[in-house]
Amino acid sequence: MSPTPFQRSQGLEWDVASRAVPGQKQSGDLQLVRPRRDGMLAAVVDGLGHGDEASVAAKRAIEVLEQHVDESVIGLMRRCDGALRTTRGAVMTLVSFNMVEHTVAMLGVGNVETVLLRANPAANPSRESVLLRGGLVGFQLPALHASVLPVFPGDVMIFATDGVRDGFTEGVNLGDPLPQLVGKIMTRHFRGTDDALVLAIRYLGKPDG
Question: What is the DSSP letter of 118?
């Protein structure tokens, strides 16, 4: 498992766990969490297949997102689609946290499953999923429609690529430190047949300081 230091900034805290498919040194699954004008952009990108060529596609998408971090999730997805035309392509989910309006704008193309778990036990529904649209960024981009939801202190958003088995949020304890939370998911749900990545982000409600 590839560890990444636990991080906290701009009213969020996050951690990630990743594994390359056995026999490969590089993973084609990458994540990005970067500040933007109104809050933070989070992304998980899964290059098609695995190995070096998948990694090339994922890295190219991350570069594009970093260069245009303040754009809307729809605009970013379209930029990635253009930039990945000469690669294998990728699937990805983008989430923009607005720290002023306390909302998240979410957009997914492909199968990077992303779930928002509510910290309030009385919340109904207690979980919300990013609507995933079929397609491949760089080859076949579907009609894009972002969804926007309110977000509250303590809510946790979990992204998982398809190297992680379905049902990965079952038994998740939102009170766990995020390094422990992502580690448990990876240990319990890693398929072993593809690269895998789990990113968890906890909304804290206001920027640090």
Answer: P
Distance CA 90, CA 139 (A): 9
Q: What is the DSSP letter of 136?
A: B
Q: 189: which 2 tokens? A: 């749900």
The answer to whether 189 and 165 have CB atoms below 8 angstroms apart is yes
Residues 190, 115: Cα–Cα separation, whole Å = 17
Domains of the chain: 2-203 (3.60.40.10)
Residue 201: strand pairing partners: 14, 157
**Gap between the Cα atoms of 102 and 25, Å rounded:** 39
pTM for this one?
Answer: 0.94
At 136, is the pLDDT very low, low, confident or very high (cuts 50, 70, 90)? Answer: very high
